[in-house]
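User: Can you help me understand a structure? I only have the sequence.
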Amino acid sequence: MAKLIFLFLTLIPILCTSFTPEKPSDQRILVLLDDFAVKSSHSLFFKSLQSRGFDLDFKLADDPKIALQRYGQYLYDALVLFSPTIERFGGSIDAAAILDFVDSGHDLIVAADNNASDLIREIATECGVDFDEDTSAVVVDHSGYAVSATEGDHTLIASDDFIKSDAPVLFQGIGHSLNPSNSLVLKVLSASPTAFSANPKSKLTSPPSLLGSSISLVSVIQARNNARILISGSLSMFSNRFFNSGVQKAGSPTKHDKSGNEQFFTELSKWVLHERGHLKAVNVQHHKVGETNEPSIYRINDDLEYSVEIYEWSGKSWEPYVADDVQVQFYMMSPYVLKTLSNDKKGHFFTSFKVPDVYGVFQFKVEYDRLGYTSLSLSKQIPVRPFRHNEYERFIPAAYPYYGAAFSMAMPNTICVCAVRTLV
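Assistant: Let's start by predicting it. Here is the structure, written out as tokens:
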């Protein structure tokens, strides 16, 4: 019995060091595959995640035992769908469960290809991405294709639009468009102006539905709850073959020994899994000027100071966040005060202002939403009272003329009364 208790106590630290906002890379990731062969053919991508501290759990997408949560608690912090052909997930997972997973603040990576099932397309559509309705269509580019030893149908594309990398990124798969009503979706990698989406094995009888730079090859979404999603129209992009393949874009004399795929997805996965652009705010304080303790109530026209510390996760540690666009509102129904916070480049943001001449229940509010960063929403409620009757000034400087006029009118009457009493 003592041994069991000792074993339990030694396991407590392990259980407690599972995912915590203090270290975003301490996460469990569920990877759903169509075939376990993908685990080997895409091993470089998976090893990149594991080397950065992520715990990967590989399952077949139709495994009847898989589940995202148990007893109301999620078992994983992120989900990778490398199962483009799956028609129905196993266990308790379906499209609704995956969307609930994202709605709960968890991250998602989806890779499709030209055999993408209706289930994968449905998940993408719910995230604001619409794959080409023609299930036989792939992205074709007769100008921006990758030069190979055997000329093919120009479906192997070398794309360098919307990215900064040492070499073009290889893509072979299906394109998608962004839902115009969804402002949260962004293109990360787009096709060139000469690209189009069609079946390369048949003649075009009508204009393609997706043309040129409007075709997105890889897109990302950051939900309002800070969950992040990556959607790619190509599973091959993540493969070892594409990671290690040399690339030369048509029309370019430069031949690269290695494509930009590994660099591209390493950096992109860091953002999706909150290793980049992840902010936290701590030590929110407010107090009167010259004091250090936080009061329970302010008085109108008090001078106060507000401060907060903001840090960004660098992948290994929390570093001071530096920005000049963080603002605080002193809010009651609408902002009475809006101030841009100064910072000392060490993560400390601060400002000072005078409490408005309005009493009621106010809030200090910081609503920070910057592209590429997790949003911050901070609020602290504080009441503001008017002056008490004994706190008003006895003599108002602006009223001195009136005081003088009153005394000047009162003085003659006083002299007359005194003179009459003297005579009597």
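Now, to help you interpret it: The mean pLDDT is 86. The first strand starts at residue 28 and ends at 33. Let me know which part you'd like to focus on.
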